[in-house]
Amino acid sequence: MYTSFYHLTSKPFQLSPDPSFFFASSGHKRAMSYLNYGLSLGEGFIVITGEVGAGKTLLVRKLFETLGQDNILSTHLVSTHLDADDILRTISGGFGLPHESLSKAVLLNNLQMFFRRAVQQNKRVLIIVDEAQNLTSKAVEELRMLSNYQLDNQSLLQSFLIGQPEFRNTLQSPQMVQLNQRVIASYHLGPLKEEETREYIEHRLHLSGWNQDPTFTPDSFSLIHEFTGGIPRKINTLCDRILVFGMLEEKHRISVEDVDEVIQDLRQEVTHSHDPLPESHLIPPTSGSSDPLAQAFLSTFESRLDRLEATQNALMLMANAIHKNVSTLMRSLFSASNSNEIIDQHDE
Q: Which pLDDT belongs to residue 236?
């Protein structure tokens, strides 16, 4: 393990989003400001888009960490290939409500009562939807209809929609006019600038007990940025392999040639080829490159990382659900509510 070789206290480039490693780039600072502004309004939809691996999920987790969880009830949807009824069941299950074999009317009634009781107990209800670009138009419409629920002119819930860049186009379609009118804050999270890439790498190393071992040459940072396009998750993947390479070669100084060699190894792994690759002359492939080997590397690793993150998110949600003490809230909610309450706002 390279952590021992380089005397690090932890792995600096782990793939799972960890708020303690949050790096406040110029883009992330601005996105955080938009999120805080949206939360201060306490209603509507907040939309965050960005490339795969740009740090959208980490941004939201960092926000919740700063807010604290005492007065927040939230559920996080990580699988969004759902129809209208399924998304209601998923939301209900996320809040610990009954949802199996129930009609849509009952699901809506239970959710409305849950939202009202939470607000009466000075709690905020948040729905976080990851991979929002995969939502069907009917599922999006159900989320919009849920946002109609109010109590004494106070909105009962707020929703975060986190998606890839194409979700911005979805929001601009004619079918999304009503939802788009309820978006109170929106931000597109772009890649890191070249100087931020170096700061990002050193930031994560310092948090892992780095003491300038190994050192990186300035041009090695430039190559890392060019190859990864400034996308944090891609930077993590590449830098992790660079440190493995450094340990195996017993290097305490990482040069641009070392970085290029790791990139060539990764490209060769993706193509499953043992044929020698042509000299790169240290010209790296980027996300916009026409080089098929580069595109194969990027798309394959993004797909693998997406599956890993989805699995990790699901496991974290399960763990959180086990520790959530929703039973007390449920008992007070249903004891004070009429199970036959009419949903008078759903069709507004």
A: 95
Q: Which residues, at least 6 apart from 246, have a Cβ–Cβ distance to it below 8 Å? A: 2, 5, 6, 214, 252, 254, 258
Rounded to whole angstroms, how far apart are CA atoms 191 and 225?
10
Cα–Cα distance for residue pair 106/73, rounded to 1 Å: 21
Transcribe 207-257 into DSSP letters: HTT--S-SEE-HHHHHHHHHHHTT-HHHHHHHHHHHHHHHHHTT-SEE-HH
**pLDDT score, position 10:** 92
Q: How many CB atoms lie within 10 A of CB 256?
A: 18
pLDDT for the residue 332: 47
Determine whether 53 is exposed, middle or buried from the number of CB atoms within 10 Å of its CB (0-12, 13-18, 19+): buried
- Most distant CA pair in the chain, distance: 73
The chain-wide mean pLDDT, for the chain, equals: 80
**Torsion angle of the four alpha carbons 145, 147, 153, 156, in this order, in degrees rounded to the nearest 10:** 130
d(CA 144, CA 139): 9
Residue type, 106: V
Q: What is the pTM of this model?
A: 0.71
Pairing of strands 150-151, 154-155: antiparallel
Distance CA 57, CA 59 (A): 5
Could you say which of 3.30.1660.10, 3.30.9.10, 3.30.420.40, 3.40.50.300 is the CATH number of the domain covering 26-191?
3.40.50.300
- The single-letter code of the amino acid at 342 is I
Domain boundaries, the chain: 2-17+193-303, 26-191
Hey, how many other C-beta atoms are within 10 angstroms of the C-beta on 37? Answer: 12
Task: Tell me the range of 11-20, 62-71, 126-135, 202-211 where mean pLDDT is highest.
Answer: 202-211
Which of 226, 286, 290 has its CA nearest to residue 256? 226
Q: What angle do CA 28, 91, 161 make, to 5 degrees?
A: 25
User: What is the C-alpha separation between 122 and 48, in angstroms, rounded?
Assistant: 26
